[in-house]
Task: inverse folding
């Protein structure tokens, strides 16, 4: 029984020492970040004494919504117009604009993943339709 009490004391004391040390390191990092942080300013702007506004990203949520709405409208038009009688799903290729930081391998991998997931979903829907028609 004495060994069990001693083991629990060591466990609790060790846990507390580790947690206090981690909290102290976190506090030191936050302190240094607040004291030493300086936003990056281009050398030309710093020499001229001009404040440079931050450049906003083109990939905002509103732009994504606009792209999704346009794609949905095109898809709906192509589904309702009989001249576009499609025998297979629509394939829309979206090419990333420059500055994505992705290699060609990553882009191709993501595209393959999206296409395979679309094929899998079509197979699931087909099986679901067969199950529904088979139950009637």
Result:
């Amino acid at each position: 029984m004495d060994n069990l009490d001693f083991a629990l004391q060591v466990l609790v004391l060790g846990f507390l020492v580790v947690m206090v040390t981690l909290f102290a390191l976190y506090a030191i990092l936050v302190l240094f970040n607040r004291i030493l942080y300086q936003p990056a300013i281009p050398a030309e702007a710093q020499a001229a004494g001009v404040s440079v506004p931050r450049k906003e990203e083109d990939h905002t949520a509103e732009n994504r919504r606009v792209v999704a709405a346009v794609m949905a409208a095109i898809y709906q038009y192509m589904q309702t117009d009989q001249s576009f009688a499609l025998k297979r799903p629509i394939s829309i290729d979206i090419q990333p604009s420059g500055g994505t930081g992705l290699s060609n391998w990553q882009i191709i991998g993501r595209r393959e993943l999206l296409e395979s997931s679309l094929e899998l979903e079509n197979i699931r829907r087909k099986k679901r339709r067969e199950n529904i028609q088979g139950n009637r």
Notes: Helices lie at 2-36, 43-48, 61-80, 104-135. The two ends are 69 Å apart (CA to CA). The chain has four helices and no strands.
